[in-house]
Design brief:
The protein is an alpha+beta fold. It has helices spanning 2-16, 44-61, and strands spanning 19-20, 24-27, 30-36, 64-73, 85-94.
Length: 96
């Protein structure tokens, strides 16, 4: 029974380390969203796609068009807390 509890605690800690900032206003109609994996075993592609998707949905909900400004990505090796991470800076532009 104690082994099962120990595994449950470890699993909870690993899954709770993943983070998502949500949409953060930066001023001058610019925003930021970030995603970080819970471990070094997941790929960067999914994180980046999720961040872009969230940003695009945010702009669409405000009847605007998503425009990426800059992305910053963590560099390997993904060990000792340096897990895959992406930060996306974007604007929501008026529809043409």
């Amino acid at each position: 029974m104690s082994k099962i509890m120990g595994l449950a605690v470890v699993a909870g800690l690993v899954t709770s380390c993943a983070s998502n900032s949500g949409i953060v206003p930066l001023g001058n109609d610019a925003y930021m969203v970030s995603r970080q994996a819970a471990s070094g075993f997941s790929g960067m592609g999914t994180l980046k796609a999720d961040a872009i998707g969230e940003a695009a949905r945010y702009c669409e909900s405000n009847d605007k068009v998503f425009e990426a400004i800059e992305t910053e990505e963590s560099e390997p090796p993904y060990i000792l807390g340096n897990f895959p991470r992406v930060e996306l800076h974007f604007k929501c532009m008026p529809k043409p």
